[in-house]
Amino acid sequence: QVQLVESGGGLVQPGGSLRLSCAGSGFTFSSYAMNWFRQAPGKEREWVAVISSSGDYINYADSVKGRFTISRDNAKNSAYLQLNSLKSEDTAVYYCAAAAGRGQGTQVTVSS
């Protein structure tokens, strides 16, 4: 069955960095655009970034533009989200998602 598994979250100080990974299985990963979303406590889910199936189209939410970088490696059935210059307001559960399904998420906490 379709599986998307995120990893790489954790506790980081403001200004720090994390790299999130998303491993896909059970579907043709290279055929799907990949998105990252996040949801903070008490807030609605927010779209963060998208990368097309081939990687030639990328877009970001204004809130993360210039700080986050999305990428993928279709040979490894994986997508990534590099988070730099983290702020407290980036604290959330981060999910990867494709039309095929969505992962369970990984917690990112930005705090001193």
Keywords:
112 residues; four-stranded antiparallel sheet; mainly beta; 11 strands
Question: What is this entry, summarized?
Answer:
With 112 residues, the protein is mainly β. Helix content is 0%, strand content 51%. It is built from no helices and eleven strands.
CA-atom Rg in angstroms: 13 Å
**pLDDT < 50 runs, ≥5 residues:** none
Quaternary structure type: single chain
Please report the total strand number as a whole number.
11
Helical/strand content category: mainly beta
Biggest beta sheet attributes:
7 strands, mixed
Fraction in helix: under 10%
Kindly describe this structure.
- The structure is a single chain.
- By secondary structure, this protein is mostly beta strands.
- The chain has no helices and eleven strands.
- The strands form two sheets. Strands 2, 4, 5, 6, 9, 10 and 11 form a seven-stranded mixed beta sheet that branches.
- Strand 7 and strand 8 form a beta hairpin.
- The mean pLDDT is 97.
